[in-house]
Task: structure prediction
Amino acid sequence: MFWEKKTKIRKHIIFYGRVQGVGFRYYAVQKANQLGLTGWVKNLYDGSVEMEVEGEEPLIDELIIFLQNRTYVWIENMDAKSIPLEHDNGFYER
Result:
């Protein structure tokens, strides 16, 4: 029997568009914790939202798709890069 090794990654993402004042951080925290992802999310002064998220890549993709499909959220662009793992506990708002 073959066992697939689960590989964790960590991404730093900045979301641009209509991402403040629309529940983006709230939805991110709820869904990330439901998916077992760790990290944080916070608003930036320029109207964008910054996130660091750690977990299996398909689950991170699922989080992003979930956020894109929220009623009032409109993600115009994302800057994402891989960063070293931090092994933090939980996902929270900064």
